[in-house]
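Regression check, 3-acetylpyridine adenine dinucleotide case 501:
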Amino acid sequence: ARASKAQQGAAVGAKQSRVIIVGSGFAGLGAAYELREAGCEVTVLERASDVGGVWRDNTYPGAACDVESAIYSFSFAPNPNWSSQFAKQAEIHEYLRNVARDTGLMPHIRLNSTVERADWDNDRAVWTVRAGTDTYEGEHLILATGALADPKMPNLPGIDKFTGEAFHSARWNHDVDLTGKRVAVIGTGASAIQFVPAIQPQVGHVTVFQRTAPWVMPKHDHPITEREQDRFAKRPFTQKFARTRIYLQRELLVTAFRYPVLMKAAERASKKHLASQVSDPALRATLTPDYRLGCKRILLSNDYWASLDNPNVSVINGGVKQVTKTGVIDAAGVQHDVDVIIYGTGFDTSRLPLTDRVHGPSGTTLSEHWGDSQQAFLGTSVAGFPNLFLMHGPNIGLGHNSVIPMFEAQVNYVRKAISHADKANAATIEPTAVAQAAFVSKVDRLTDGSVWTSGGCDSWYLDSTGRNSNLWPGTTISFRNATSRFDASKHTLGTVEAAKV
Ligand code: N01
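Current build output:
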């Protein structure tokens, strides 16, 4: 009855799907797989010509995951063949392509389908989604567009005047041959610390513009031997055991984030790591952070600091004042002429991708509705936006563990929410404003006094109001618990007739 009502008055030529998912990275593929397993028909809209999300897009030299491969995998596709403890970008991308193919998802994925707009149709209780010349209609819309999908170029005077080559690390221009070139790198975050050591031996000179020194810890990486892979394949419980061990060890880190003073021991270990990599005391001083470890993402690398201690590298402290036709002017006003500028300046986290094009019942977009601080119930559903779910929504990111179990917990909640509405023969479901506010105040309570707010740094974890609207500040186990039992009292259901009002 629900389906036939929704189809009455469907836009001419609109393609129908029970659930529309936007994005085919980890979150989108995970959601599509689990919902199909639950018997739900899905269509995945993907803007690119391939699946993979950030692991398709971030092809910079040295790109790899800083979370162990054993836990950076779906629980339904553990992959005994990971070749190293921390997988590289190409292998993770390949893994995602294999998952999409082997689970039969490919026929349900529309590649090269950039979503331009989504509107909630109050009369029929459906989402109408426009992607190029196609229109899709679905009872439920899931945004799996990631939190770190849109590269952020810095707002620097003169940025368009530079006459050499320039690109962002998340859109690496492989046509530019860096051999022997003078290269400026702006930014020293998780991406830069991976590509700087990879390009340093090749370039003529690299000038690294550091605005804030990052804390770096050793990366305990090693190849996984064929023998181990064989064992994981033949005796899956051994891989499951390894996975659980790493996962639980990482969970313990949340305690340290909660009590920033505990980070002092880790800071000592990081300084020891720095001393072992950089012999020049002046350079060591430049590279020593002045805020509490954990305030920004903790970086793992065995070669970043060492690569900076080379004659063809300069580290300029204090950031960048301006870009000119021929190079970069640093904070002290000194001009550095270069051939290439690489922006390792991170991602736009001021609003989640696409939320400025998703229009709710009143026509207001989700980002307008949120204003400066994004909020959602369980980081997944939003009061006032029926039948909408956000994978990697507000407060789903993690500073301490793999985000994949967070996605799996979110999908579990989405599945139960849809099933609850179905059983009640309801056309719409959304969280109550009270439930959402309670979740948000729990997040605020857990964040209060943590290293993220009292660590003395600026990070993308906090929004322009100073609130943590990006990270889940608890354990992933507590998040899984919160999503494992569906609480009907925290949701409102609606009929098509009610939706018309
Ligand atoms: O970006 P970032 P990223 N002038 O935002 C600097 C994930 N990730 O792409 O610290 C000068 O961390 C900025 O300086 P400051 C991971 O979640 C995961 O490196 O703001 N500098 C900073 O140094 C990570 O947290 C993996 O003072 C400017 C840098 O640019 C997230 O992606 C690998 C500037 C930006 O660092 C983002 O990492 C890679 C300006 N105007 C990334 N503007 C894994 O392994 C910015 N900066 C899973």
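Comparison notes: The mean pLDDT is 95. The first helix runs from residue 2 to 7. No diff flagged against the previous build.
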